[in-house]
Structure formats: structure tokens, C-alpha cells
């Protein structure tokens, strides 16, 4: 259960409270032997249902916020990592190291990237010294194709590798704070942290939905079970044609499934 709209669960809770309100208006005439149907307990179950729904909605808001923050951070990465590779390319690295970091960068680009864009990336990261050029071997030449890895975890992992290459290069230097070794590693750490926050938020949301489903639908003393037992009790005590039963017969509590 859980993909049904929150409106459906909220309507169920509102109808549960409505039918509980009717039992309260019946006063002493509503006197079930079953403990969980007694008026005092019905109020407690209604409060539990409200808390469970509130907790689930709070978890949804937290998850949405984590996802939005991650989206913005990774969206900026698409323009940031080529800058890092460009600075790396002018830091006196050998051809093999440069090709390694370029290979990682290619994984972070969509497969649909145009030839022109690929050429621009190659030009940006071209070797700038004669020594580096002479070090090129068949093993270090760019591959014609590199499979894209565009998932959030893939991108964070690949950029972490780029950060490691940057840190390992003693000649890497930049005056721009975000492009320094510390700035690049900080950005890498922020990507990993954003993924961790999303994973935690998604886990918390799933737990909240499971708990809501238990309280609302699947527990032996779920709101769904209690709701329909109240109907059966009123029908049994007052009769199906009674005014008392007619007051609640049209109120529904739907079993919402995933």
C-alpha cells in the first residue's frame, strides 16, 4: 500500500473520525463488549491514525527536499567537472594520467552528446607540452566510445575519482577557490552526502508508509477493521433499517492498496 494518493488516506481518516463522532452522539446506547470498540479507545485510535498520517507526510516533505537539493547539486556538476578536467590538463600531467581522467569524464556525459561537444571536451583537455605529446602510446589513445554512467551514484563515484586524480597531481594548482584541490574534494564530498541524504530520506519515507499501512489497513486492530466492526455493531444492535445505522451506512473507509 502507499502509491494511493494521500487524499485517499486522509479521506479514510476523516470518515473514521466521522463515524466515531456518531458513536459518541449515541451516548450510553453505544456500549460494545469489544474493548477496541469502546468510545475511549476509538478516540485513541483516531489520534494514532492522525499522527501516523502526519509522520508520513512529513517524511514525504523531507524526501522531496533532499531530492530537490541533490538535483540542483548534480545539475551544476555537468558544467563543473569539465572545468576541473581543463585545469588538470594544464597542470603538467603525463598523457596516461590525462587520458585516464578524460575517460572518467566521458562516462559522465550522455551517450547522445554530439560529436562537436565531444571534440570540444577533447580540445579543452588537450595536452599542452611536447613531452606529454611524445608520451602518447596506443594504450593511452582515447577510445572511440565509453559507456555513459549517468546515475547519481555513478556520477558521484566518477567525480570522486576525478578528485583523487586532482589530489594526486603535485602540479595541480588553481586560484579559483572552487577549483583548488580542497574545493574539488569538497564538491565531491557534497555529492556523496547528497546521495546519502536521499537514501536516508527515502528509507524513512518507506518506513513511514509501511507504518501508516499497518495502522490504517493491516494490523488486527487497524482503523479499517475497527471502522467496519463499528458498522457491524450498530447494525446488529439497532437493525439495518434503524435511524442509527442509516446515519453511518453510507460512510466509507476504503482499503487502499499499492
Secondary structure: elements and pairs:
Elements: H1 6-25, H2 39-89, H3 95-107, H4 115-124, H5 130-134, H6 152-168, H7 181-218, H8 223-238, H9 243-249
Characterize this entry briefly:
The chain has helices at residues 6-25, 39-89, 95-107, 115-124, 130-134, 152-168, 181-218, 223-238, 243-249. It is mainly alpha-helical and 258 residues long.
Would you give an account of this structure?
The protein is mostly helical. It has 2 domains: 6-63 and 206-249, no CATH class; 67-201. Helix content is 69%, strand content 0%. The protein has helices at residues 6-25, 39-89, 95-107, 115-124, 130-134, 152-168, 181-218, 223-238, 243-249. Helix 3 packs antiparallel against helix 6 (152-168) and helix 8 packs antiparallel against helix 9. The longest helix is centred in the first third of the chain and has 51 residues, at 39-89. It is rod-shaped and about 90 Å long. The chain starts with 5 loop residues before the first helix and ends in a 9-residue tail after the last helix. Mean pLDDT is 86; it is low at 121-146.
Uncertain spans, ≥5 residues at pLDDT below 50?
Answer: 121-146
Secondary-structure-based class equals mainly alpha
Mean pLDDT: 86
Order of helices and strands, N to C?
HHHHHHHHH
Basic shape: rod-shaped
Number of structural units classed as domains? 2
How many strands in all?
0
Strand content: under 5%
User: Which percent range fits the helix content?
Assistant: 55-70%
Oligomer description: single chain
* Cα distance spanning the termini: 4 Å
| Tally of separate helices | 9
Major sheet attributes:
none
Radius of gyration: 31 Å
Amino acid at each position: 500500500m502507499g502509491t494511493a494518493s494521500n487524499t485517499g488516506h486522509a479521506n479514510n481518516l476523516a470518515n473514521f473520525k466521522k463515524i466515531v463522532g456518531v458513536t459518541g452522539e449515541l451516548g450510553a446506547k453505544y456500549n460494545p463488549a469489544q474493548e477496541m470498540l469502546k468510545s475511549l479507545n476509538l478516540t485513541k485510535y483516531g489520534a494514532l491514525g492522525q499522527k501516523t498520517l502526519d509522520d508520513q507526510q512529513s517524511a514525504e516533505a523531507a524526501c522531496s527536499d533532499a531530492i530537490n537539493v541533490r538535483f540542483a547539486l548534480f545539475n551544476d556538476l555537468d558544467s563543473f567537472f569539465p572545468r576541473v578536467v581543463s585545469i588538470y590538463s594544464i597542470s603538467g600531467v603525463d598523457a596516461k594520467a590525462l587520458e585516464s581522467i578524460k575517460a572518467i569524464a566521458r562516462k559522465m556525459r550522455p551517450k547522445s552528446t554530439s560529436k562537436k561537444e565531444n571534440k570540444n571536451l577533447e580540445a579543452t583537455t588537450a595536452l599542452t607540452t611536447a613531452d606529454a605529446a611524445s608520451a602518447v602510446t596506443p594504450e593511452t589513445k582515447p577510445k572511440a566510445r565509453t559507456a555513459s554512467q549517468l546515475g547519481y551514484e555513478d556520477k558521484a563515484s566518477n567525480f570522486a575519482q576525478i578528485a583523487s586524480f586532482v589530489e594526486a597531481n603535485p602540479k595541480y594548482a588553481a586560484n579559483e577557490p572552487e577549483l583548488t584541490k580542497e574545493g574539488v574534494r569538497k564538491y565531491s564530498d557534497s555529492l556523496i552526502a547528497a546521495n546519502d541524504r536521499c537514501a536516508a530520506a527515502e528509507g524513512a519515507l518507506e518506513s513511514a508508509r509501511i507504518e501508516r499501512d499497518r495502522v490504517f489497513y493491516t494490523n488486527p486492530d487497524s482503523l479499517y477493521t475497527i471502522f467496519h466492526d463499528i458498522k457491524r455493531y450498530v447494525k446488529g444492535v439497532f437493525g439495518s433499517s434503524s435511524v442509527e445505522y442509516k446515519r453511518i451506512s453510507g460512510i466509507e473507509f476504503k482499503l487502499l492498496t499499492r
